[in-house]
Amino acid sequence: MSVLLQFDQIGKTFPGTIALDGVSFELHAGEIVSILGENGAGKSTLMKVLSGVWPYGSYHGSFSVEGQIAQFEDTRAAHAAGVAMIHQELAVFPELTVAEHLELDHLPAWINWNALNQRVNEFLDEIQFPLRADTRVADLSIGARQLVEIARALYRRARILVFDEPTSALTEQEVRTLFAVIRRLKAQGCGILYITHRMDEIFELSDRMVVMRDGKKVGEASARSPQGESLNRATLEPELLRMMVGRAIESVYPPRGPHSEELVLEVSNLRMIDSKGKVRLNDVTFSLRKGEILGLAGLLGAGRSELFDALFGVLAAEGTRGHASCRVSGSVRVHGKLVNAGGPIQAIRSGMAYVTEDRKGSGLVLNQSIRSNFSLPCLSASKGDYTRSKGAMGVLRSEVEAEQAQHWREALKLKCANLEQPVGQLSGGNQQKVVLSKWLATGPKILFLDEPTRGVDVGAKVEIYQWIQRLASEGMAIIVASSEMPELLGLSHRILVLREGSVSAELGDSEADQEKIMKAASL
Questions:
Q1: Integer Cα distance of 233 and 206 in angstroms
Q2: Residue 248: pLDDT band with limits 50, 70, 90
Q3: Helix axes 458-473, 428-440, angle to 10 degrees
Q4: How many whole angstroms separate alpha carbon 293 and alpha carbon 447?
Q5: pLDDT digit string (tens) for 105-115?
Q6: What is residue 230's predicted lDDT score, i.e. its pLDDT?
Q7: Strands of 337-338's sheet in order across
Q8: Higher pLDDT, residue 89 or 497
Q9: How far apart are CA 232 and CA 217, in angstroms?
Q10: How is 126-165 classified by DSSP, letter by letter?
């Protein structure tokens, strides 16, 4: 196979930080190489060098594309050389059509729309993409929008494609479609660099894995034999994890402890109907015990997040959630006491805490400091001794806020410059630690975790798993929703499977496996 890309001793520094330190490896035509490493390992910085975000002269070393030394001044130069990056957060314009996206760099002042759409449709048929030229991007699913970005890269004749966490917001079917596209690109001679924290994807797609840690390439491994057969994952995965975190991980999932039979949460006939009359939740009934970890499984759209939203909105027996677009009915009891309607503040006061799946959108205030993010739930629900009364108003006790923030920084081993640093500057794993700690500061009895390790590296995942088991052993009742079945199986005492808003199965830890969960989720 010919060499498409060659990195040679790439180095990049920021004030006080060595982001890349002598990184060298190559990518061949028709090869998929996964780039592994914890958040902050240097993966994104290296890809920014490759894609022209960091221009020539701002880094040390060199790299070549198809044998030619690359000196990209910007992303346009990288595109012209056949390099394209498919970002996790898609760079599409909802109001434009598919054809307009593909021709965006070359649209003339006067456009022959029939000729443009015909040309783009012929191209889409050639690459076997299920898209049409005149479709508005706003009318496409997330997975289809991602295909638009890939089609745009191929329209520019890209030979090197970088995929950055491409499956984080996709349905299972969209993931299958994406993987088929990637394999087809490989067969056509493209070189693929694939970045993900999901080990299942790494072993399914990769020909080779390159591992980075602290800005350095610390190792690489082949995923396939010379005959193209997949190598033994059981022996290869522990070695990859050791290289990523710098230490052996004997067990990713800590052993589960016993739980009490004492009921903490009882949910009966929970029903949610949206403004269009669609049933989002249909008579969901279950209970949760002290010290128990209940796994919540289901395909995208099955109702996992809706269940958390409904519970944290807090219902009366025949009430409506504080959300104009949904009607919610049913009953919720905490320690046998019916919880009155009142929204999230009442939920916090009832002992609930909710780590949402979208930490950037609804879990954090990104432009505020780590310290102020820590205390938000406690302030809103008057938890702890954060304020002192002054007339009708409460005055923040900044010394208490700082003390509590420092406590949780140490407890969760948060990596940050200082507590005044904007939380948006932290890595994904450290942002997730801030979200978790701000809710733990409220002293909850019940903890809802929606995709708690999405976009989090393996080292931070292990730390979060250890915290989940520790909290359960101390008596907290926990519900974990995850699209990663190994995570659910490794953490849960019991698994509840949702399908189209209804409970389709309940599986104990001794009987649960991936096949049973998938069957209950999809049939």
A1: 12
A2: low
A3: 10
A4: 10
A5: 777 778 888 99
A6: 72
A7: 279-289, 263-274, 326-334, 337-338
A8: 497
A9: 23
A10: HTT-S--TT-BGGGS-HHHHHHHHHHHHHHTT-SEEEEES
Runs of H (alpha helix) within 314-427: 343-349, 370-380, 398-411
Q: Is the pLDDT of residue 408 over 80?
A: yes
User: Once rounded to an integer, what is the mean pLDDT over residues 300-328?
Assistant: 69
Contact 86, 165 (CB under 8 A): no
Question: Is residue 387 predicted with pLDDT exceeding 60?
Answer: no
Task: Residue 136: count other Cβ atoms within 10 Å of its Cβ.
Answer: 13
pLDDT of residue 378: 75
Do 303 and 481 contact (CB within 8 A), yes or no?
Answer: no
The domain 3-245: what is its CATH number?
Answer: 3.40.50.300
Token representation of residue 222: 């082949």
Give ∠ CA 478-521-482 in degrees, rounded to 5.
35
User: b/e map of 465-498 (b: 16 or more CB within 10 Å)?
Assistant: bebbbebbeeebbbbbbbbbbebbbbbbbbbbbb
User: d(Cα 367, Cα 428) in Å, to the nearest integer?
Assistant: 15
The least confident of 87-91, 144-148, 233-237, 449-453 is 87-91
| Measured distance CA(257)–CA(260) in Å, rounded | 10
pLDDT higher than 70, residue 341: no
Q: pTM of this prediction?
A: 0.69
Phi-psi region of 309 (alpha: psi -120 to 50; beta: other; left: phi over 0): alpha
Q: Could you tell me where in the chain the CATH 3.40.50.300 domains are found?
A: 3-245, 263-522
* Joined tokens for residue 218: 């610390």
% pLDDT > 90, the chain: 42
* Spatial separation of the C-alpha atoms in residues 500 and 282, rounded to whole Å: 8
517, 493 contact by CB (below 8 A): no
Question: Does residue 324 carry a pLDDT above 50?
Answer: no
What would the two tokens of residue 429 be? 């794993």
Name the CATH architecture for the domain at 263-522. 3-Layer(aba) Sandwich (3.40)
pLDDT tops 90 at residue 232: no
Compute the distance between CA of residue 80 and CA of residue 62 in angstroms, rounded to an integer: 18
What is the side-by-side order of every strand in the sheet holding 477-481?
Answer: 352-355, 446-450, 477-481, 293-297, 494-499, 502-508
* Contact in structure between 240 and 218 (CB atoms under 8 Å): no
Q: Please give the structure tokens belonging to residue 352.
A: 């609930």
Average per-residue pLDDT for the chain: 86
